[in-house]
Amino acid sequence: MPTGGKRNMGLRERKKAKSMAEVQRHALRLFREQGYKSTTVEQIAEAAEISYSTFFRYFSSKEDVLTRDNYDPLLVSAFEAQPSELSPLQALKNAMMSEVLDMSEDELATMRERNQLVIAIPELWSAMMNSMTQMMQLIAEMVAGRVGRQPNDLAVRTFAGAVIGVNISVMLHYAEHPEEDFAAVLDEALSKLEDGLPL
What we know:
InterPro entries: Homeodomain-like_sf, HTH-type_TetR-like_transc_reg, HTH_TetR, MftR_C. The protein is mostly helical.
C-alpha cells in the first residue's frame, strides 16, 4: 500500500479511537453518577449524542465500553512501521510508546478511570482478563510475522505473555498512582523487561 494510504488509514483509525474514547467518557460519568449496574446502553448513547445502533458499531456491550482497547489497530500500524533492524521488543516498545505519547490528557484520564472501575468490579476484571488474552494473541501474531515463526510457537507466546504481564502491572500501578506520568511508567516497565527483569 502506498505511504499516503497508510497515513489516511491511520487518521481514520485515530478518529474512530477518539470517538470511542468520547463515548467512554460519557459512560464513565454516568457510572459515577448512578452506578455501573444502573446505567443502560440507551443512557450512554443519549449522553454521547449518538444513536443506539451507532453505539454497537463501536462496542458490543456496556461491559465492552470499559474493557475494549480502542487503539489496537493503531498499535499494529505503528509496529509494522518500525525499522527491521530493531528487535521485536524494541519495535513493540516504540509502537506502544508512540501511541501513548499521542494521547491527550482527557484520553489518559478516561483510561485511568476505566482501569479503576475495572479493578473494582469483579465481572469487569474477568472481562478485562479475556480482553488481555485476545491482546496477547494479537501481539503473538504481530511478532510472529516479524520473526518468521508461527503465533502458537512457545517462544512467541511467552514473549507476548510477558508483554501482557507488563501491561497489567502498569494498568494496576497507574490506577493506584494517578499522579504519575503514564508514558514514563510504561517506558520504565518495558525497559525492565528489555533488561531481563532485574530486581
